[in-house]
Amino acid sequence: MSTSEKFQSVFVALAAVLGLGAGLLWPMGEVAGFLVLPLLMVMLAAVFAQVDAGQVREAREARKVVAASLVLNFVFTPLFAWTLGAGLLGGSPDLRIGLLLLLVTPCTDWYLVFTGLARGHMGAAAAVLPVNLVLQLLLLPVYVLLLGGEAAMVGTGTLVEAVLLVLVVPLVIALLVRWGARRWKGERWREQRLMPVLSASVLPLLYTAVFAMFAWQARTVVAHLGDLAVLLLPLALFFVVMPLVAVATGRVLRLPADQRVTLTMTSVARNSPVALAIAVAAFPDRPLIAVALVTGPLLELPVLAVLSQIVRVRRAGPAVEARS
After folding, report:
1. How far is 211 from 294, CA to CA, in rounded Å?
2. What's the pTM value of the predicted model, to 2 decimals?
3. What does the pLDDT read at residue 318?
């Protein structure tokens, strides 16, 4: 894991603070606002280009963990997210939608890093990735419209258009990049030269997008600092409950230690960049939703770092044990 990855939450917070200061000191909100969505779309294209659909074949080796992760991510988590929002954020519709968008989008990148650190089953983790991507693309509008209720206040057409713009367009671009690189330069060049460049570009694009968003909505953030603090409680509950549920599920299914680790990481890690891009595109007149989504990674990354050590597979002689 690179230094930038280790301190991602710190850099996200720093980008937010710098953007907030710039937005309050200089009249740059309108210009910054035009940059947020393009930056996020380019970043997502770079992320998607690194996804290999052939990884689905790895699922044959770990069908139980893949099936369990799909149930936890696409059945349990949406219902849990709705419960947290309705119970703790009932008076803040924008925060409810922000929380919902964040929690119903399982991670498609960083959980692999933490799975590796915890010595999880990387084949199963890789197999889950493209499935998570496709299912969240299809189901996200359904979750928002069904579970968001009156708080969503957005038409089906608007939400579908946002998903098509933010997810499908970068996905198509990513597929063309993968195909074109292999067609003209060869698979070896693509994997050894292009993929490292794309991987290295993701975090700078994310930090720049966060900076631009906070510069754009600086006064909105200052006016709603108290509201954003309220969001910390449901987020904290999610990051405490989900690891326990995932570990318990792994034990009930009698999964091997490395597969329990994979199940835990893919159930806890969230896809905040995708959720943020959807929020900016679908709710342009409700900036608090997008601002709320930046709070997630500030808590999520430290949690994943600690969790990767707690559930890490311990090897003592020939035995393989996981402390969980």
Report:
1. 11
2. 0.74
3. 43
Q: Where are the domains of the chain?
A: 3-312
Burial of 321 (0-12, 13-18, 19+ CB in 10 A): exposed
State the DSSP string of 1-18. --HHHHTHHHHHHHHHHH
Which sign, positive or negative, has the C-alpha torsion 285, 291, 297, 299? Answer: negative
Q: Class of the 3-312 domain?
A: mainly alpha
Pick the closest to residue 18 from 172, 190, 209 (CA basis).
209
Residue 102: which of 86, 78, 124 has the closest Cα? Answer: 78
Helices 122-148 and 156-163, interaxial angle, to 10°? 160
Which stretches within 57-121 are classed as H helix? 63-71, 77-88, 93-103, 110-117
What are the φ/ψ torsions at residue 98 (nearest 5 degrees)? -60, -45
What is the C-alpha radius of gyration for the chain, rounded to an integer number of angstroms? 19
Distance, in Å, from the CA atom of 30 to the CA atom of 37, rounded to the nearest integer, reads: 13
Segment 20-53, tens digit of pLDDT: 899 888 877 778 878 877 887 888 788 778 766 6
Q: Name residues whose C-beta falls within 8 Å of residue 169's C-beta, 6 or more positions apart in sequence.
A: 41
